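Final report, closing paragraph on structural work. Over the funding period we assembled a curated collection of sequence-structure pairs, and we close with a single example.
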Amino acid sequence: TIVSATKIENQRAGISDRPDVISGFVDSDQRFRSLALKQDWSFAFSNDFLAVAGFELQASRSGVRLRIINDDRAAVRPDLDNEPVTVRAIETVPRGSQYALYTELRMRAGDRLIVDAGLRWDQQTYACGDRRRAG
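Its predicted structure, as stored:
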């Protein structure tokens, strides 16, 4: 049996105070969580026959990536009739689950031959979330 949990939270921010070049920016990536469970069973019927079965479950949740850039360079050249530029990008990251069931049978068919047959079912339910970009 394996049980695992992961939690990561990051925050990053940046500012540039360079007059007439760039007013500033923010860059932030936040949160990742995962919880998983895996279970394996095996049973040896004899030295020549082995059965294995198990399952895996994992749920994951991610966070938000946010980028904002404020660029005042365009406003410095009034002869170009430009406006300051602000760019915003918001991206949500997938979240969802993974599931698996599996079974396997091994049989010794001779001194140098082992026959191994198995079945596995997997499913993922990741949603891409809400991807938006605005400028």
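Confidence is low (pLDDT under 50) at residues 130-135. The CA atoms of residues 94 and 129 lie 6 Å apart. We thank the funder for supporting this effort.
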